[in-house]
From TrEMBL, chain A:
GO cellular component: membrane
CDD domains: MopB_CT_Formate-Dh_H
Protein name as catalogued: Formate dehydrogenase major subunit/formate dehydrogenase alpha subunit
Listed SUPFAM superfamilies: ADC-like, Formate dehydrogenase/DMSO reductase, domains 1-3
Domain Molybdopterin dinucleotide-binding, chain residue ranges per copy: 414-520
The UniProt record lists the keyword Ubl conjugation: no
Record keywords: Iron, Iron-sulfur, Metal-binding, Oxidoreductase
UniProtKB/TrEMBL annotation, chain B:
Species classification: Bacteria, Pseudomonadati, Thermodesulfobacteriota, Desulfobacteria, Desulfobacterales
All residue ranges annotated as the 4Fe-4S ferredoxin-type domain in the record: 164-194, 208-236
Annotated GO CC locations: membrane
Top-rank taxon, per record: Bacteria
Alphabetical GO biological process terms: respiratory electron transport chain
Protein name from the UniProt record: Formate dehydrogenase (NADP) alpha subunit
Keywords attached to this entry: 4Fe-4S, Iron, Iron-sulfur, Metal-binding, Oxidoreductase, Repeat
InterPro entries the UniProt entry points to: 2Fe-2S_ferredoxin-like_sf (IPR036010), 2Fe-2S_ferredoxin-type (IPR001041), 4Fe4S_Fe-S-bd (IPR017896), 4Fe4S_Fe_S_CS (IPR017900), Mopterin_OxRdtase (IPR006656), Mopterin_OxRdtase_4Fe-4S_dom (IPR006963), MopterinOxRdtase_cofactor_BS (IPR027467), NADH_UbQ_OxRdtase_ferredoxin (IPR054351)
Domain (2Fe-2S ferredoxin-type): residue spans on this chain: 4-81
Cited Pfam families: Fer2_4, Fer4_Nqo3, Molybdop_Fe4S4, Molybdopterin
Amino acid sequence: MTNTIADIETADVTLVTGSNTTENHPVLSTFVKRAALHGKTLIVIDPRRIKLTQHANSWLRPQPGTDIAWINGLMHVIIKEDLHDKKFVEERTEGFEALAETVKKYTPEYVEAITGIDADDIVATARKFARARVATILYCMGITQHTCGTDNVKSLANLSMLCGHMGKPGGGVNPLRGQNNVQGACDMGGLPNVFTAYQSVADPNSAKKYEAAWDVEGLSTTPGLVVTEMIQKAELGELKSLYIIGENPLVSDPDLNHAEKAFGNLEFMVVQDIFLTETAQMADVVFPAFCFAEKEGTFSNTERRVQRVRKAVEAPGFAWEDWKILCELATRMGNPMNYENAEEIFEEIRMVTPSYAGITWERIDQTGIHWPCPTEEHPGTPILHTAQFTRGKGLFHAIEHQPPAELPDDAYPFMLTTGRVIYHYHTGSMTMQSRGLNELSPECFVEISSNDAAKLDLADGEMVNVFSRRGKITARLNVSEKAVDGTIFIPFHFAKAAANRLTNARLDPVAKIPEFKVCAISIEKAA
Amino acid sequence: MGKEDIIYIDDNPFTFTPGETILDVAHRNNIFIPTLCHLKGTTPTGACRICVVEVEGARDLVASCAAPATPGMVIHSESKEVINARKNIIQLMLSSGNHNCAIRDFESDDWTSFQLKTLEADQYNELCPVWGDCKLQDLAYRYQVTTRHMPLSESKYPIERENPFIQRDFSRCILCGRCVQACREVQVNNAIDFGYRGADTKIIAGTDVPLKNSDCVFCGECVEVCPVGALIPKESLKAKTRFEDIKKTRTTCSFCGVGCQMELSVQDNKIVGINSAGRDVAPNNGSLCVKGRYGYDFVASPKRLTTPLIKKEGKLTESTWDEALDFVATRLNEIKDRSGSDSMGVLTSARVTNEENYIAQKFARAVLKTNNVDHCARL
Ligand code: SF4
Ligand code: SF4
């Protein structure tokens, strides 16, 4: 997030899009709901009638996969009515002319034709957003999990910059991270193209810096493969081994039938986890690891706040900490890696990571610190881009609407979108161990509107088969007010009826995120 | 600083900023004024009136949580009248419902029949499950309230147990309304409210349905703020002893990316409860969600992996660390030599710590010598 969670309550207008906040980030959603309760304006733009719409002043309903169109539509109105922040645009940004040119054709009527959102609503929303003293944008996987996900995100940044809502309290563009330490995994260089703090592996200077710090030679300066590419290469037999730590791609991957084949093709696969997940079952070797309650360390939350994790209980049996397993393995492979404890690792992180350099375990004993925090005297940075953007001036990206990779047709007439429910988490390897959570959310379901159910002559609670070009699952039908005609929602948690047997593995060309949020399906009564 | 922004509490002057209540000023200066219904950050309801104080010149005692400080105000925080008023309130609360801790006194025979009846209603053979951790009990003790001559009252509504996480005991409810404030103004889930009237008043969910059929999402905020034993985590009824050897550890939740600060209560190497780290601790300021608060069974699950496994003849078989580590080290070195570094990949995890992610990418880059390292956050 560019801003903090607490900051949300200070915004005049909150625009939430592609985030089912009350179910996926329940505590963060309380900030959004309280702001609305205290009279601030809440706008929800989402294909489903999610719970948050009950708290919103307005709900705009786009067809899945048409986000660039409505964002361009808002900007069209803002520029046409001269509501943009000229001072901000002038002083802090570049590329405005190209943007203005591109959004010219996105008239409210044109946008209505693409998205299904009423032209009048586009105009009213544009005015509300632009006229706000300060407005914040919150988004999640509903924006990123598309073939045009990167462009969706850039478009939201365009909108915020255009109105000068960037770099101040209560503003910004705020991605909500779905997992506890996504932020940290990225910050720590758990990405194929960067070391810690996003230092490029292709830059010979950073490679040199790391060779010195790690006392090794010959670090590769070629960016590596992202997870989805690794799976493709495994299928082609070009990737031979995969070492997987605490993830369960065999439920969370798109087009699972394909992914299973790819994993089966690997010569050697190691999994280190706390449960024998669907993925671990395929491994050649499985190492037992610690869970969060058993270890010391830090997580970085969605607002870039580095916080302590502490040991409360002893781990079961002969499990080890994840870092200890890797260090021991490195040593046995002839590259000794030795640390006394996790704090010693953190001290090394500080040395090579400018944005974490000023953070110590002692400083964050009670309250976490937001990076960047370059020195031990620095208080941390709750709000990014207050004086300038990382690259200096903020760049507007002129972007055209692109339809999703797969749209409904006669054979597969419905749109499928996937996500989570409040009582479960990701692939359920943790939450499905809880009898209570299972009682509240026992199984997969297929959420459908009452109109669509009537059309198919299906009743609530009935078992149905769902087909896509890639696979089939069977699950219970749930006729719900949340669903809008033509669009079906299925949670992806449940391995037994894994929604990802249906989804499309087509990737966003830059972020390489699969298009989980739109694909075409058909439904029929299960025999 | 002029005389304008000063009030006097028990003869000492204190400054205030306009908008502060008497209670705010007192608490800021560590002056004891008891509260039951007051919940920071929500609209004061004045429902319990336990926070009354004497204000010179006012006809009646004043509820300090709702009365703004005004210049020159003279306040007595614990005068005789104040004490008497508080005793009355406590007495009434104690005598309605199954408050079967030792504070509720009776003539001996009455106590026995009351106790037996309560145990039966509770289906629990201990005293009230929160004794020793109850604001009402604390206050009754502080003010030495006796209920000896107060008659036994019947509980009107049975205990609600039909959900996995929260037990609602209406007999012990003192109708302070904190849970309603927490649900409507903090979490804004709007699941519960005051229902019925007068002596029949009850905290109801929806149209007086069980929580699990209402809008409740089991965040447990109401449980955390309930000052008495009316709302309790069901899990707590299973704890062996309530106070012995409970160790509390502050940590960060491991589910979504909000990073809520929480406190794990551990007994015998087992998590027996999770609470927030407090209403002043960012980022969650005292709130948690159902997964963070109640979804900890996985930690002690019998299905946890406890030993390394190696696939032998298609079956994962238990092995020692030595054997497994050597096997993996050998195999990885072989593949690296034969097919090259870039034929190998590492998937690190958005679930593990920064320290572990750092080591994972270091392992890929410095040991395997490849940049094929990623995590599954895209998925
Ligand atoms: S349930 Fe607890 S918090 Fe709610 S009104 Fe009763 S005593 Fe107060
Ligand atoms: S658990 Fe949460 S949602 Fe349910 S009644 Fe309590 S505060 Fe409301």
